[in-house]
């Protein structure tokens, strides 16, 4: 089979599409013919050895997929060959076939196409876990989303609106903010041309926001933290800007602010039952027309490396989907 392979941790440019042996599932695993796989920011980190998880080399990146079950390993009862499924696999999705732990696989929801299924699991799963399980966002609260035109940012906007929140989207260009408005953002801030904290203060009558969703980090973290209200919650989702910020802890003290980490992948492993409930909620919202991943581009395996490179430099809006068999 063909697969995008990381042979050593290092620059994204080292990734190559190679012919490798088609794997066989062990006990508790399934092999999936990958029809669609989505590109995410952790793909850029994992191949450079910068992510929390470091797979044994060589490996294929790609954390989420949609496809058809081809073979099941010993002990797998809830899945069968020919079944259309989606999965968060962590890595291995940028290949024609992938081996996945059966517990991380669920049926493709009715009425959902493969591209949408592949683009749903990680970004929407992360955002729902962050807003509901970690931050406990309440109806009527105001949420500030940084990096709002990225995959997790757009998902956070849609989910927060379903939870009854007011959403302020922050991004670095007008076309990105226009996209945020199409998925439901109430207000927008261009943090490349506006003072983030002052603009948020103006939009909240000086009260600040109850919650910040931050997958960006870098220079935006401190002003966004300062823009939170009394007992505001700050969700640390990722560091797409590249720098892990250091903030003065007196900012937490002065308004009894709470800084909360979000590690969805480990949460799925520790609490698979809650993950299943969340995925069922997302499937319901999709069926009702309330959420829909924004897919900006579709590429074959030969275009996957470039897509990861552009993701790393924050040049992607929404999601890029890889078709391994194209």
Automatic annotation (TrEMBL):
It comes from Sphaerotilus montanus. Keywords: Oxidoreductase. It comes from the Bacteria. It is an enzyme of class 1 (oxidoreductase). The keyword Zinc-finger does not apply. Its EC number is 1.6.5.5. Residues 10-322 form the Enoyl reductase (ER) domain. GO terms for molecular function: quinone reductase (NADPH) activity. This is NADPH2:quinone reductase. The keyword Oxidoreductase applies.
């Amino acid at each position: 089979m063909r697969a995008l392979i990381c042979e050593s941790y290092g620059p994204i440019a080292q990734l190559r599409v190679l012919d490798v042996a088609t794997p066989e599932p062990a006990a508790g695993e399934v092999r999936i013919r990958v029809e669609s796989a989505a590109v995410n920011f952790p793909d850029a980190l994992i191949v450079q050895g910068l992510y929390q998880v470091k797979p044994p080399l060589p490996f294929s990146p790609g954390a989420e997929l949609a496809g058809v079950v081809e073979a099941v390993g010993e002990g797998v009862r809830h899945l069968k060959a020919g079944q259309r499924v989606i999965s968060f696999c962590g890595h291995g999705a940028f290949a024609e076939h992938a081996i996945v732990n059966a517990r991380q696989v669920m049926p493709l929801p009715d009425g959902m196409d493969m591209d949408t299924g592949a683009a749903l699991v990680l970004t929407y799963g992360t955002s729902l876990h962050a807003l509901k399980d970690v931050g406990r966002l309440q109806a009527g609260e105001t949420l500030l989303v940084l990096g709002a035109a990225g995959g997790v940012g757009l998902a956070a906007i849609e989910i927060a609106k379903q939870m009854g929140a007011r959403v302020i989207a922050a991004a670095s260009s007008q076309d990105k903010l226009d996209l945020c408005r199409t998925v439901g953002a109430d207000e927008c801030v261009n943090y490349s041309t506006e003072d983030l904290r002052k603009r948020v203060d103006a939009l909240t009558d000086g009260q600040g926001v109850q919650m910040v969703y931050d997958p960006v980090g870098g220079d935006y973290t401190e002003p966004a933290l300062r823009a939170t209200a009394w007992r505001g919650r700050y969700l640390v989702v990722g560091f797409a800007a590249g720098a892990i910020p250091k903030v003065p802890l007196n900012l937490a003290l002065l308004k009894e602010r709470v800084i909360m980490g979000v590690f969805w992948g480990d949460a799925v492993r520790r609490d698979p039952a809650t993950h299943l409930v969340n995925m069922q909620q997302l499937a319901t919202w999709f069926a009702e027309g309330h959420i829909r991943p924004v897919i900006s581009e579709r590429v074959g395996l030969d275009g996957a490396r470039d897509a990861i490179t552009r993701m790393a430099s924050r040049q992607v809006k929404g999601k890029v989907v890889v078709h391994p068999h194209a």
